C-alpha cells in the first residue's frame, strides 16, 4: 500500500525517443502512444528504469547494502524477489509545442489533456485553482494579455488557421503551470514567461492532429564498419517527441518491502526526489529517458509538485 505520493512534471529539453518497439506505419521506430487517444506518453516502467539507472550510475554500480533493490526492487534473476518501494505511473501529455508564425512555437493543449492533468493532481491530493474553458472547432483559446495575437484575430499554427478568443480562465491555467510545472531556476525564466503568454487551448480534434503529425522524425543510416559507407537497406526513420513538450506522471512510495531495512515511505520519497544515501535527487534535475542517449536524445527536466 502506497502511503505518500507526488506529481512529477517532465519538461523535454531535447528530442525524446521512448520507443514503442513495433512499427505499424511508415516510421520504423515510433514513439509510445496511448491506444485510445494516440497521445504520446512515457510508460511508467521506462521512467522507473531510467531513475534506477541514474541511481546505479551515481553509486558507481555499487549495491553493497542492497539500497537499489530496496528502493526499486531486485533484478529478475535475484532469488529474493520482492516489490520495490517506489512506483512511477505513466507520464501523460499536458502541452505540446506547435510551430507558430508569430513566436516560433506555442504550448498547445486541449480540454482532454488539461482535464486529465487536473484528475492526476487531484488524485494525488493537489488542488488547482482553475477551470477549463470551452473551445469550439476552428477556434482556440488564449490568455487575455500578451498572447501571440489579439482576441478575434487568426492564429496560424503549422499550415492551419485558428481564430483566437481570449479567455480569463486561460490566465489562471498558464500562470499555475508556469509556476509549478517548470523549474524555478533562472535558466528557465524565459520559458516560464513564454508559457504564461503562449499557452493555447485547441479543440481535442485539432490537438490530436498536431501530436500525431508534428513530432520529430529523423532519418538514420547504418554505416558498414569496414567500408565506412551506408549499408544496403540501412536507411530507417526514428520518431521523437519534440523539445518543449510537457508531461505529468504520478510517483508513489511505500515502506520498503525487503524485510532488510526500515525505510519509511517518506524516507523512500525523499531519497529518490531530494537525494540521500549517495543518490542524487530528481527534483529540478535532468533525467535521461528512452533511447538514443549517445546522440543527445532523451533529456527531460523533472519538477516535483506536492
TrEMBL record:
Residues 10-300 form the CRISPR type III-associated protein domain. Keywords: Antiviral defense. It holds the Pfam family RAMPs. InterPro entries: CRISPR-assoc_RAMP_Cmr4, RAMP_III_fam. This is CRISPR-associated protein Cmr4.
Amino acid at each position: 500500500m502506497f502511503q505518500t505520493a507526488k506529481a512529477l512534471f517532465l519538461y523535454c529539453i531535447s528530442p525524446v525517443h521512448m520507443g514503442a518497439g513495433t512499427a505499424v506505419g511508415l516510421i520504423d521506430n515510433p514513439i509510445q502512444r496511448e491506444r485510445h487517444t494516440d497521445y504520446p506518453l512515457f510508460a511508467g516502467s521506462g521512467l522507473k528504469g531510467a531513475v534506477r539507472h541514474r541511481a546505479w550510475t551515481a553509486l558507481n554500480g555499487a549495491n553493497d547494502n542492497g539500497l537499489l533493490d530496496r528502493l526499486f526492487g531486485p533484478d529478475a534473476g535475484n532469488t529474493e524477489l520482492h516489490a520495490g518501494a517506489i512506483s512511477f505511473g505513466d507520464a501523460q501529455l499536458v502541452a505540446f509545442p506547435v510551430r507558430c508564425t508569430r513566436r516560433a512555437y506555442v504550448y498547445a493543449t486541449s480540454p482532454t489533456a488539461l482535464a486529465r492533468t487536473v484528475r492526476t493532481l487531484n488524485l494525488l491530493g493537489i488542488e488547482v485553482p482553475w477551470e477549463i474553458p470551452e473551445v469550439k472547432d476552428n477556434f482556440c483559446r488564449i490568455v487575455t494579455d500578451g498572447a501571440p495575437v489579439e482576441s478575434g484575430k487568426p492564429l496560424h499554427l503549422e499550415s492551419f488557421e485558428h481564430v483566437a478568443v481570449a479567455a480569463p480562465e486561460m490566465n489562471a491555467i498558464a500562470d499555475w503551470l508556469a509556476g509549478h510545472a517548470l523549474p524555478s531556476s533562472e535558466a528557465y525564466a524565459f520559458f516560464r514567461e513564454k508559457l504564461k503568454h503562449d499557452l493555447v487551448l485547441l479543440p481535442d480534434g485539432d490537438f490530436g492532429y498536431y501530436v500525431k503529425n508534428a513530432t520529430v522524425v529523423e532519418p538514420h543510416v547504418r554505416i558498414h564498419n569496414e567500408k565506412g559507407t551506408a549499408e544496403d537497406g540501412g536507411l530507417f526513420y526514428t520518431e521523437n517527441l519534440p523539445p518543449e513538450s510537457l508531461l505529468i506522471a504520478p510517483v508513489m512510495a511505500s515502506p520498503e518491502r525487503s524485510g532488510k531495512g526500515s525505510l519509511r515511505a517518506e524516507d523512500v520519497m525523499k531519497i529518490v526526489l531530494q537525494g540521500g544515501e549517495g543518490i542524487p535527487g530528481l527534483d529540478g534535475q535532468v533525467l535521461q529517458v528512452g533511447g538514443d542517449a549517445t546522440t543527445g536524445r532523451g533529456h527531460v527536466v523533472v519538477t516535483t509538485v506536492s
